[in-house]
């Protein structure tokens, strides 16, 4: 499996610094949640990790600077599920998931048995097998989100990066997606998920990276990151985490009172 490492990673968008000096090690076998308030730089971080935006500093895959790796090879190493699940073409779900195999295909190559097997596995894991003949643009938001997840899973990359994978999903499928991501990590992959649901992050992630104003302010086990004082400082909310028992519980008590 592949080790993903950033050193002094910074991103400028226009004249604004979005990320500033990010040093992170993403090891295989862990589900790593990236959390933080809106505008903190979470999506910018994962877009940089996938090579979609320019950056300074270093991003290394198994010790090799990512920018020197051929685009197709890098696409085979890192599967990416962007937020929004925007679709522009009326493809069937089956054809949509097939797109996940493009990094494995040469010019003019066709889907072969090994690709078809990967596509089937991905659709089963994302619970979209019964939707395979449906037009993806006609699906509900939750169904479309699962179909896009299946496309990412079909790459069968050692690194899976998901930006807000729970958006538009009903509670049952939120649990199923988090269980799936945890299972991918348990199978030895590096799984990075941008999450807004802190309770889900606490329950399923083995490690949480919290970002504020483009900097890492915490990087540790959920119990060490999601304390009441830090949630107040970073999110401006009153909250309590109950770590007793097998399932952590998060109580959102309200926003902090304005001074005075």
TrEMBL record:
GO terms for molecular function: ATP binding; ATP hydrolysis activity. It holds the Pfam family ABC_tran. InterPro entries: AAA+_ATPase, ABC_transporter-like_ATP-bd, ABC_transporter-like_CS, P-loop_NTPase. Residues 4-238 form the ABC transporter domain. Keywords: ATP-binding, Nucleotide-binding, Translocase, Transport. Part of the ABC transporter complex HmuTUV involved in hemin import. Responsible for energy coupling to the transport system. This is ABC transporter. It comes from Sphingomonas turrisvirgatae.
